[in-house]
Amino acid sequence: MNQPATLGELSNTRWGSPALRMRTVKDEMRANLIRKLEKGDPLFPGIVGFEDSVIPQVVNGVLSKHNMILLGLRGQAKSRILRSLTDLLDDAIPVMAGCEINDNPFAPVCRFCRAALREKGDDSPIMFLNRTDRYVEKLATPDVTIADMIGDIDPIRAARGGLNLSDELTIHYGLLPRSNRGIFAINELPDLAGKIQVGLFNILQEGDIQIKGYPIRLLLDVAMVFTANPEDYTARGKIVTPLKDRIGSEIRTHYPESLEQGMAITRQEAWTQRHEDGRLVIPEYIREVVEGVAFHAREDKKVDKRSGVSQRLPITTLENVVSNAERRAIVNQEPKIVPRICDVYAALPSMTGKIELEYEGELKGAQSIAQELVRASVKQVFSRSCSGVDFQQIVDWFDLGGSLKLSDTASAADTFEQLRSIQGLVEKGSTLGLKKKDELALVVSACEFILEGLHAVQKISRSEERGYFAPEKKRAEPFFDDKPGRARKTYN
After folding, report:
1. Which structural domain, as residue segments, surrounds residue 269?
2. Over 80: is that where the pLDDT of 401 sits?
3. Domain annotation covers residue 488
């Protein structure tokens, strides 16, 4: 079916009905949301862990036709939620052809469109604007000007058209007017200068703007949404009170509340589907260890909780883990790519840049803190997945003087030859929840996880120089009784 090309043709379609002629963007979002709720359609695909907390509040905000702000630490899917709001818009809407601010053909607000309507009437050309083109996003930075957001006078346009500078046709519109009849999103709102924020709340409330001292009334139809980090209110700036008062809903986001939710997000976002032939196999305990690093970092006293630990940490870490395993498989010409615990330690560069440290943490260094977090995560996963398993035979092998140094570049076959010398290790590794117990690379990965787990629970020791070895015995100190000059031969 051909779309109407003129205002007259448009009037004879469903768009000419009174209900749609003057429908605002917030009415449109509300109607489409109600339709989705009635059908049971997914509201925000790809948003995990917010089903019972954030999403209901966003739904309430849309149903109330509110401008909204999402408050949360970095990496809490705030921007993704805002971009998902476009799913609540119609597939396309009619606008005046050639209009810079997407004017409604039935009620244009800019002078250019009003003049075109008077001149051509029902023959006025129209076009359709897709929902993706109705979303405008701006990252707030201190250098943003009122001209960027609202607009400015264009003297070149005035000169070419022989217009007075006070003429409305000389305006070069900013981002906000250009998002008319759509969604305008501002990320990190507190970073925006106070005078810019004042310009925003004036449009939110009154619909009036002033450009270079010329008062121009534009009744813009915009759904405004914002994001902010709560700590930024004092660290880098703040939201001016009149603007905050005009934001209808303030919604708090949060990090995943369970390891399973975090793993689901990381599985969805991390680029791990690199080999369609099934060559890459990521053991579940590797995924748990990587995700656990973020959870432990958020609780660690040496990590700055005000800054937060982004969900991007486990995502990029898992990607690096896979890449290190991929590199090893390529160099050794192995058919299978199976990450090991050594690959998690090789991915430390993906962790250190995403954690802000307190003073105590700064003294130890980001590298040491990241290693501690990995070890803590391994301990938790090992204790949970290997509960009730007897590893005494393996510990005894080290107590009798055995030691083993593994390399993250060695092939699975070479590493297996090293591991099989430890009594009982290969047998335990072959039963660690493996679907294919005969897969050499999987057995090697499981065995290395067991060794690292025993190190995490302090059954064996490990160092960069010696690898895995028995913990050093505590040297006994002689015990002296209370009578001076006489020492007993007993030791505690």
Report:
1. 259-469
2. yes
3. no
